[in-house]
Structures
1.
Amino acid sequence: MKKVIVLVGFVCSLFLSSAQVSHHEFNQMLSEINADSIRATVQDMVDIPNRFAATSNLEVAQYIAGRMRQYGLTDVIIDSFPINEYTWLLHDYVNHNLYNVRGRLPGVTISDSIVIMGAHHDCITTNPPFYNVMYENTAGADDNASGCAVMLEVLRVLQSHGFSPDYTIDFMTYDGEEFGLWGSEYDAATRHDAGDKVIVMLNNDMVANDPDDERVVTLHWYDNAIEDRDTAVSFCQKYTELTPFVPMGADNDERQASDSWNYAQNGFRSVFAIENNFSPAYHEPGDTTGLYNYDYAAEISKLNLAMLIHYTTVAGVPTKVEDVADIATVSLWPNPTSGIVHISCPKATEGGTTILVYDVFGKLCRTEMVNDAFTTLDISNLPAGMYVMKLMRQNQLLDVCKMMKQ
Ligand SMILES: [Zn+2]
């Protein structure tokens, strides 16, 4: 079960209970990621008669939405919109409805900050050497039932633990990726226009090919999300058996070839995970379930699980074995503030205590060591808005408070 911290007091007017996963439970979650479960989802998707990018993909959208509801998500929508675009692959216009799926796990602390985990659910088959598009035999196991299966596996494990994030998670699958990233283009632009606070978008596209068990994952990255790339690198090493590969220069151009690109284009941070050993059956009829390594996809799922917990809980991934037992009651005033905040934290006298201030995008804005029971923080240089203040001692979360800057 999640660890819930409840603050009592009367000085801080915006107390919050924060989602926190204990170290034990986090390890438990990682160990419950199951390769057979991922494989079964891939097979289900391969068995859907049609996932072809140029025809209606309502059936696969309904399958994904059904799985999300089965795992307890109550806010699941199939986001349908018309498309009328030319694609060079077909030498023709695609003119029909696309179907994105969005399953929302609402945040309990700052629900309007959103972390997206996404993957495209459509596929195509082309016929070499001329690469004309074929409508038949679109199995799409690796590209990209595997990415959808990883997302559903992470959701399965989180929901079985009753995980309740601080920030909202949108689990998404996209239509129309293969012809021009259309589903994600629509979603990213819609969110941009609505002013959505997207913390990060985690994209998985082709994450099951690893015939020799090399367990290398390529992490394509975007200029506005270098920190996020580095987090993914360190999480591969800490929580998985994956060796991360970070492409540089032209090797990173493939970042434009999947849905995360549209989020980057709209100013949102994103990370794109893809197998380092590229599928030999890419866009071919042989892209079927049996070709792939689901233990490898399970490691990719562990990376995604760790990233999600990191990005959607104020406390982040737990670093201590014990639950947080020693809760320091922190008070801050005035709140809202125009600049100066007074902080009372009796436990700070024990030393090694740090105040971390995050904005609604999860970006760290201030770090301050505190040694006294009373501290004053000047945040007059920060823009107006909501902030989250974390009080940490040696990687252990002591307390969390919301703070409003006027
Ligand atoms: Zn793909």
2.
Amino acid sequence: MTAPPLTEPFTIGGVEAPNRVVLAPLAGIGNWFVRLQAKRFGAGLTVSEMISSFAIHHRNEKTMRDLLVIHPDERAYPGPIAFQLFGQDPEVMRSAAATAAEHGADIIDLNMGCPVPKVMKNGAGAALISDPAAAVEIARAAGEGSGLPVTVKLRSGQKSGEADGYQLALRLVDEAGVAAIAFHPRSAQVKHKGSPDYELAAKLVEQLPVPVILSGGLSNTEATLAAREQTGAAAVMLARGALGNPWLFESVLGLRSEPPAREEIVAELSWIIDRASEHLGEERAARYLRTFYPWYLEQLALDKPTLIAFQQSESIDQVRSMLAELEPLTSAA
Ligand SMILES: Cc1cc2nc3c(=O)[nH]c(=O)nc-3n(C[C@H](O)[C@H](O)[C@H](O)COP(=O)(O)O)c2cc1C
């Protein structure tokens, strides 16, 4: 059976996404301006970075101010926004999901794939793959608390060669009414390394009556389209491939065939700087953006000292003037 084109809409528990290209949840990265950027370049659904259900439940100030926020500009573009929550306590999840709904989420996504020890040691993230009964209870509670469709993002299993994540996906849909599964077919053990098991993803697509959103290894257009073809997944979820490269959304959607010009890359970085400053204020943005600079600047093939100067920059003003100095260089190219 051929899957519909990625440009066609699909629905998750009755919520429609205008196309099948999704921004992945990215911890420390997927705030409103990164989601807005993905929407500007065509993403049909965006997912927030993972947010602690405990932090929401206890109204942690930084969480409420920095993470549980949808910017009005995100709503200028079609397509739902999901907040991804993590945690191991069903009652806390019920309350956090209710609050996430009050703060504008269209979908609640649950993280059952995070392999980070800090998260797993509390029984959250990928630890839930080994506790399917708790996972089902948490998913039910999220749905009841929020009144929204619930999706779950998980991995193939705890260890390579195991399929406990696959089994959990079946149970979550069957027993908790989960509306879609975002499937990253790498084990928690290998974190982000190695080849995803697309065969297992294809099997899940066949088995599940709800959409499977494929994650993992979708680093460029060719890889994304090939993995989509192989699995028949309802949608694809772009992660590391989209860091500093929002053009990947356009390319996967068939809206663009050329790589971005140098001017476009500089202009996009400049947009990120403006929006990060709006979000965090210039002082915090200056520190926060240091990880973002190489994603953009490495595409310009700048010399090492220039790259280092950006990463060691002290202020947004300094970065803006360094960017202005690059402009003649980029327009000459
Ligand atoms: C920096 C970083 C942060 C991530 N944060 C999250 C997260 O908050 N929640 C989640 O479910 N997955 C998270 N992931 C996993 C990605 O969503 C995605 O499943 C993974 O990177 C595989 O896709 P890729 O090979 O195309 O990058 C993260 C990955 C990276 C690299």
